[in-house]
């Protein structure tokens, strides 16, 4: 069967008023389902939902000290709009995992309600979707049990150093104790595995890599070092100064024997290592080389921003952003919205091109996209 192409006006964004996609993509199956496929053979299964662009920290690699120009309230999706899109994603578009992020997702009071709704859905495999949050941990200790009761499966907690002074300098807030509390409570209530995300910034926490690794292994959490990406204030990222995955591994090797974990990575961005300090401390550590070894070829993510734009990549530019907010508000059907979503993913580029000389940082900062 030959596949014909159609150019359809979608008025997706001022810069991309139309897109050419195969007709098949426009026609759902008899049960209304479609696949979020792209032209490179990737299929999106993992939905990242940004619940707010606001945050109670000011991490240097993410935001300026004064914060961002926060989205006005009426531009942010309501709970009903978010749950409608998640339902569509899970029930009709093949989404199997939903991760809530931001900004700081705990700043959304209805987080438990949104998670409970997500967990009540069924994926194309007949199970409830996996649910996770990425959080800075502030206030998590108090809510961890309620979140687990609502159906939250896992947490990623961001912690870049366990040195109190370095933490306060890096996040511009003195809240290290709250984060440690959050980690301990998450473990207690069974939000497992608890993963720790750590971004290493030259001059801020590059001295603390081994200490952080020891802390995480002792607690029984899974540490993931993430290379700093050009997604925050431009003055804070310099390709020639950044701490690379190799630098991090070299530092870890001063105290640990590292052996690669021999299992397929799938769509996971982390390269995993077995770490052993030779004195009984053992465990796994991951390193996400987002800049130096991109993993775009296996990406299975689709993103929804707090103001209702579908993004096919963290690094998508304005013409790769597809707002569905107006469609949600003008009475469009689920099928019309699904068409936009499918078209947005069809337009996904092969990779982020950070290392190309012509690379342009996305117009939105990380907190406004949803990390
Ligand atoms: N506020 C939550 C948190 O910090 O976990 C969720 C949002 S945050 C944008 C999601 C993740 O992105 C965090 O783990 C954070 O460390 C990471 N992140 C933020 N800016 C980054 C950057 N420029 N490069 C790499 N990772 C970054
Ligand atoms: Fe806030 Fe997370 Fe950005 Fe830090 S990384 S400023 S906690 S959104």
From TrEMBL:
Reactions catalysed: GTP + AH2 + S-adenosyl-L-methionine = (8S)-3',8-cyclo-7,8-dihydroguanosine 5'-triphosphate + 5'-deoxyadenosine + L-methionine + A + H(+)
InterPro entries the record matches: Aldolase_TIM (IPR013785), Elp3/MiaA/NifB-like_rSAM (IPR006638), MoaA (IPR013483), MoaA-like (IPR040064), MoaA_NifB_PqqE_Fe-S-bd_CS (IPR000385), MoaA_twitch (IPR010505), MoCo_biosynth_MoaA/MoaC (IPR050105), rSAM (IPR007197)
Binding, [4Fe-4S] cluster 2: 296, 299, 313
Binding site for S-adenosyl-L-methionine: 61, 103, 158, 229
Needed cofactors: [4Fe-4S] cluster
UniProt cross-references to PROSITE patterns, sorted A to Z: MOAA_NIFB_PQQE, RADICAL_SAM
UniProt-annotated binding residues for GTP: 48, 99, 134, 195, 301-303
Keyword annotations from UniProtKB, A to Z: 4Fe-4S, GTP-binding, Iron, Iron-sulfur, Lyase, Metal-binding, Molybdenum cofactor biosynthesis, Nucleotide-binding, S-adenosyl-L-methionine
The keyword Protease is annotated on this UniProt entry: no
The protein's enzyme class: lyase
HAMAP family per UniProt: MoaA_B (MF_01225_B)
Free-text function comment from the UniProt entry: Catalyzes the cyclization of GTP to (8S)-3',8-cyclo-7,8-dihydroguanosine 5'-triphosphate.
NCBIfam families: moaA
Protein name: GTP 3',8-cyclase
Species, as recorded: Corynebacterium yudongzhengii
Name of the encoding gene: moaA
